[in-house]
Amino acid sequence: MVGTRLGQWLILLSCILPFLRTEGSFVGITYLESAVAKGAVCLDGSPPAYHFDKGFGTGINNWLVHFEGGGWCNNVTTCLSRISTRLGSSKLMVKQVAFSGMLSNKQKFNPDFYNWNRIKVRYCDGASFTGDVEAVNPATNLHFRGAKVWLAVIEDLLAKGMRSAENAILSGCSAGGLASILHCDRFRALVPKGAKVKCLADAGYFINAKDVSGANHIETFYSQVVATHDSAKNLPPSCTSKMSPGLCFFPEYVAQQIQTPIFFVNAAYDSWQIKNILAPGVADPHGTWHSCKLDIEKCSPSQLTTMQDFRLQFLRALNVADISSPKGMFIDSCYAHCQTETQETWLRSDSPVLAKTTIAKAVGDWYFDRAPFQKIDCPYPCNPTCHNRIFDPHHDNPGV
């Protein structure tokens, strides 16, 4: 029995150690218990959580705050389904997560940010940290408190040293990338005035496009998210004063007003957007798009034509962001979603490149003002360096 257990441990260590040695490390969870008294809680009322790897050497006063993704919930039913998962309860989050890519503590794999204070904030509110409903329905016990969670986490990090920050980045992936857009200027206002502060949105530029059936599925969905979580009060007033709050959940309607420098990393054929905005299940009842969504190489010529049109819509939506000098972008033509958190797409010998530049170098050059970076890839399938996602058909859970 002991021998068997030892053998299992050795197998586990043989899997973990190469990762630790090469591309990253595992970082333990911190539960923000003090936030509960402020009403800053996950959907189920449990405390917010984050993972914090402290900076060292020259990075001791530099801070990278990265927000996790995970879609959204748009009504009581979908939000209730989250409380039995890590996306609605910190009780169900793993105690350690791997830090790689932009969060890696290895200079070789993350040359510009490896020794910064690196924080991954867990996502458990279902509305990109924008919700704020004071009342809790006793029948559901759902707490819509994402905005309070965001503020409680930032205030806790300020107390833990970010108040002395010299450099700071607010970043995020997917729904966390959207959070980094919506909260960018708010973050700048909370960090010390003397610090260099910029934001980064990875796969967070979701566009308002019709699906293959001609319906505005994502626009309706976002309106329901904003209404359920009462997010309007936490969306940029520059947008909500002009249009319906649901539209202000789309970056294309708020990005132009962002004053803080921001960088957009996004695939023009974002796999999540193709699966959920362009061809969601409700718009494809016969499953015509199923194989294509799992593997872009299995798309028919007509489906590829539709996706090329989606790319053009994405670029038009990005163009309204008023891409001036403080803004940066790395828009590749890969079938991917979130490219800064994984080593293979952030910085490795075979990582995606634009103008012979990796995402890591583009972001680092832009952040430190070494060189601006605003590049848009040629259309699929022109970039041989792409890492195109292939999804497991047995675990195809698009989310929306």
UniProtKB/TrEMBL annotation:
Q: Which domain of life is it from?
A: Eukaryota
The positions making up the signal sequence are 1-22
The UniProt entry lists the main location of this chain as: secreted
Query: What is its subcellular localisation?
Result: Secreted, Cell wall
Which EC class does it fall in? hydrolase
What are the EC numbers? 3.1.1.-
Which keywords annotate this record?
Cell wall, Cell wall biogenesis/degradation, Hydrolase, Secreted, Signal
Extract one GO cellular component term from the record: plant-type cell wall
What InterPro entries does its record include?
Answer: PAE/NOTUM (IPR004963)
Which GO biological process entries does UniProt record here?
cell wall organization
| Presence of keyword Cell wall biogenesis/degradation | yes
Q: What is an example of a GO molecular function annotated in this UniProt entry?
A: pectin acetylesterase activity
Entries under PANTHER family matching the protein = NOTUM-RELATED, PECTIN ACETYLESTERASE 8
Family the UniProt entry places it in: Belongs to the pectinacetylesterase family.
Q: What does this protein do?
A: Hydrolyzes acetyl esters in homogalacturonan regions of pectin. In type I primary cell wall, galacturonic acid residues of pectin can be acetylated at the O-2 and O-3 positions. Decreasing the degree of acetylation of pectin gels in vitro alters their physical properties.
- What is this protein's record name? Pectin acetylesterase
State the species of origin: Quillaja saponaria
